[in-house]
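Just curious. Protein, please.
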Amino acid sequence: MSTSQSSFKSFVLPMIIICALFFIFGFVTWLNGILIPYLQIACDLTDFQAMFVAFSFYIAYTIMALPSSWILKKTGFKNGMMVGLWVMAVGTLIFIPAALSRTFLTFLTGLFVMGTGLAILQTASNPYVTVIGPKESAASRISILGICNKFAGAMAPLILAYYILHDGDAFKQSLETMSAVARVAALDSLAARVINPYIVMTIVLILMGFGVRMAPLPEIDVTKNGDDESVDHSNKKNIFAFPHLILGVLALFFYVGAEVVAGDTIIRYGLSLGIELNVAKAFTSYTMVTMVVGYLLGITLIPRVISQRFALQMSAIFGVIFALGVVFTSGLTSVVFVALFGFANALVWPAIWPLALSNLGRFINTGSALLIMAISGGAIMPLVWGHLSDSFGSQQAYWVMIPCYLFILFYSIKGYKLKSWK
């Protein structure tokens, strides 16, 4: 086999396959942005209750991350990815009885199962892409995946909104004049609109599972993390002996929380300002677009012009600035600052992963699982936002973003360097 053929099979082809998976991740994940206002109407929910859409989806990562690591040890990467896609298909299938019964708890169950499938896929794919090439360019590779993810994320809410909320403003107004019986019938009809899109997604996920299983995706040893062989881990008794990892998990928790708040609340925030649903339904896509811009800059600049760590520092600083912009401006300008969170968030995930996994050696599988568990920030922080929104107003709720970015800034300056708790 020639060198070019070997390089294609060992690096290029796996990257193409992982890019396709990240497209699926993004499409499914960022549907939540439109599902929240949709279910808020269909199931008569408060802001706090509606945020359980994000909670149910992202809490699956915390609960299932370690079991996912165990599954991958038993199945290997290819079979594990296939299992993850099929578990996601079960989740999308649950949306059918949820829609027919218009039961919020059943919708949440489907979201949890979808999150479980994604936990398996993410546990496999993130360390895989981190070690498949040079460690110094890991952030650039993850940025490429991020573009696939967020491009899908920009498309997903627009496509789903076309099917389920194309007449959102008129529908909301008509509900106010309906009798109780007619209102129930109208909401049942609204709930049923998700059935066909989720049947299509189920079929696509099943076919993707077969595709991954048949693809020539090589197995790699993720424990070979490009570590310096002179690093001695004999004195490390468990994963908690690595401060740079544990603090990285916390930084990732706050990052994912900030990312999900930005993407999943922006439509609701726009509605709270009196912006029509027909306009606001596209706002999540704008957040995804600014993220793609950030990813493109990451691919261009890292590591040739700036380091992964400097990118992380600037991301945190921009996050604080944009958060202040949200709460101290008004109207559409304030919404634009929420959308700009996407730009601030773009390079955080790809920068934290290689910093947190650095020199873990035999602990890398557990370290990766802990980082996946940090995705639970996407479950907790939107609930905090929802509670603050119900109590103090949607705009003031964005104060929750400040401590998130400040901790990320701390990690980028000092936390990543700590090798001992002493």
